[in-house]
Amino acid sequence: MALLTINGVEVRCTASSWEPVRMGEVTRALNGRARNTSTVRKANYMFTTSAVLPLDYATALRGLIEGEGHVLSFEDTTSATSWLYTSRGAAPDVISGHSRVSGRHGSYALRLSDSAPTDTFWPLSFPASWTVLAWIRNPDIGTWVHRIGRSDGTEWENGNLGAPGESVFESCRVDVGRLGLTAHVLGTRDFDEVVALPFAIPDEWAPALYAFHSTRAFPSLPEVLTGGTRMPTGGLICIGLCGAGRTGPRLFSVVEQFDFTLYGV
Q: Which residues of the chain have pLDDT under 50?
């Protein structure tokens, strides 16, 4: 079993330690007895990554640990438009022909009509390398399909490499740093649990992310769900922070090692 997983992805680690975090203090009364006023106990978990991470892999792993990216769950009911905001508060700059329908996870999803005059975009200022994950449904068929698309054109359908059905890029993509959803190519589509990551995931992560995303809603980034033998039973929602990287040469490549801490929320 993996020492540590984050959002379903196994993280290569060589060492682990933890420190308790207590809300309160231990003091002594006037009679000399120790008194513990701590009422909440949490823990910070510290890890050291493997020393053989290629630079591209290390970049993606940093993004995974620190919860980089945005999630569109379409669940928020705070206001009439809050359900269209990402987990980091980004709002769409243009949207039309949309409605709220039942979702794959939770209660709601976004339906975009093919009669909408424009595509829908969220300005996220993403780099050239990115990955999108989404549950997409053709309402005429009624089956939710999990799709992953990467900036180099690689895509996965239900965790399998390739897209024997429709392509994710025909309805969900990142264009000039903006996340775009459209129904103009394939017709009316439903979208749920759209995850946009500002890094390219390694090939080996796709099946793990699909398996994780099939069983539960994606965490509200920047929060991540940790698991594995080092974490509490049932997993723990954390905020991740990576430390300075240590880079060294190999015969034909350059590798990196870095420490990181997971702060239990």
A: none
Q: Give the number of other Cβ atoms within 10 Å of residue 163's Cβ.
A: 19
Three-state secondary structure call for residue 3: coil
Distance (Å, whole) CA 185 – CA 68: 29
pLDDT at 70 (0 to 100):
96
Exposure of 223 in the CB half-sphere (CA atoms within 13 A): 13
Task: Single out the residue of 209, 59, 207, 206 nearest to residue 127, CA to CA.
Answer: 59
Closest to 3 (Cα-Cα) out of 228, 153, 175, 212: 228
Q: What is the pLDDT of residue 203?
A: 95
In a domain, 32, yes or no: no
In this prediction the pTM is 0.87
Q: Is the dihedral of CA 163, 167, 172, 176 positive or negative?
A: positive
Instruction: Of 107, 97, 100, 94, give the one whose Cα is nearest residue 80.
Output: 100
Range of the domain at 123: 70-215
Shared domain check, 210 and 93? yes
In whole angstroms, what is the distance from residue 236 CA to residue 182 CA? Answer: 35
pLDDT at 106: 84
Is the domain of 76 the same as that of 179? yes
Domains in the chain: how many in total? 2
- 3-state class (DSSP) for residue 83: helix
Question: How many other β-carbons are positioned within 10 Å of the β-carbon of residue 87?
Answer: 19
What is the total residue count of the chain?
Answer: 265
